[in-house]
Amino acid sequence: MAISTNNLATKQVPFVDLYAQYLSIQPEIDAAMSEVIRKSAYVRSKFVDDFEIEFATKLGIKHCVSCANGTDAIYIAMKGLGIQPGDEVITTAHSWISTSETITQAGGKVVFCDTDADTYTIDTTKIESLITPGTVGIIPVHLYGQPADMKPIMDIAEKHKLWVIEDCAQAHFATYNGQTVGTFGNAATFSFYPGKNLGAFGDAGCLVTPDEKLASWSTLYSRHGGKGDHQIEGINSRLDGLQAAILSVKLKYIDQWTSARQAIGSRYDNAFKHLGSTVQTPKVAAGRSHVYHLYVLNVDRRDAFREHLQNLGVPTVLNYPKALPFYPAYAYLGHKPSDFPVAHSNQGRIVSIPIFPEMTDSQFDHVVESIRSFTG
Fold it and tell me: Residues 207-235: pLDDT tens digits?
């Protein structure tokens, strides 16, 4: 028997509630912002320096170079690793476009790889077949909060003398076999976009690396090639003082928020485990911790599912509605669905439902009951 929706339709649940997060630490955030304003420390400053040290220390890596956003971070890392025009870089077929567009912008050639059916991350069994004499690097994406399979990726990179940049934009402090993502490759990049697990109040990002030479070059390049002594032509990609101060406050709470996300993810798993193939919950691979930037279901009749939830006040998002090779931006590559069968299949089935650390029991229950009412 289908569950009645009569008592569900009047409730509303946000997809994410950034204001609730702000209210939970408002005195500290307000004090941090006031201090930046008092010192007029808007561009660069001690606040930026402090955050870089704090983030690198918590991640367990030597160097953090802050920048304007996570997209710039990928671009800067590739330039620092010496990408040349026409160099081939392998990356996942299903992700946000930042990962692939920066390859092109840096002068490289995008080579897409299909995804793993269970984790949506890059299929490591397909990578080696894509390597040519022109291949210089691999950019795996730790998607939705779950790490990519880093051991085979690093083994392949070592065997073929390739660099690796980890795209950690959605997986702050997730772990793979006990090691934090962002500490495996030559470099790693993070986004601090407001909705991320660790989010600023605007655009912000960074790259991290164990390589002092790469860190020094990236710092120089991202700040016009050196203020007052332009050693090279660079770009303008700086983290501002306000965002740095906000991130320093939020960094103190990231473990607490991650635990809350994981608890909600586990509760969702339990709530939906009897729904069968109609609604499939995220599968977490052995040895990986999922930090649930997004909770992504794999569903039948997705359009009807989304409409049903929307009518009951439960928003959903498609992350991402098309695999990258099938967007107009990459039509020139001439790919067809059979080139990426898993990514092509998943693009029509995945859907993200609300998850955020401040989610109340009432909001959680409403999402669950709304989904159960769809499946009957």
Answer: 999 999 999 999 999 999 988 889 999 99
The single residue listed with the structure tokens 């955020």 is: 356
Which CATH number is associated with domain 22-251?
3.40.640.10
Give the distance, in angstroms, between the CA of residue 181 and the centroid of all CA atoms in the same chain.
Answer: 11
Q: How many C-beta atoms surround the C-beta of residue 97 within 10 A?
A: 14
> Are 22-251 and 254-375 the same fold in CATH?
no
231 and 219 in contact (C-beta within 8 Å)?
Answer: no
**What is the tens place of the pLDDT at every residue in 279-302?**
999 999 999 999 999 999 999 999
Q: Which residues make Cβ contacts (< 8 Å) with residue 294, sequence separation at least 6?
A: 144, 145, 170, 317, 319, 352, 355
Domain spans in the chain, listed from the N-terminal domain onward: 22-251, 254-375
Neighbours of 361 (CB within 10 A): 8
DSSP tag of 184: S
Q: Pairing mode, if any, of strands 205-209 and 135-139?
A: unpaired
Rounded to two decimals, the pTM is 0.96
Contact 244, 47 (CB under 8 A): yes
Q: What is the DSSP string of 303-340?
A: HHHHHHHHHTT---B-S-SS-GGGSGGGGGG---GGGS
Distance from C-alpha of 147 to C-alpha of 182, rounded to nearest angstrom? 10
Instruction: Look at domain 254-375 and name its CATH class.
Output: alpha beta
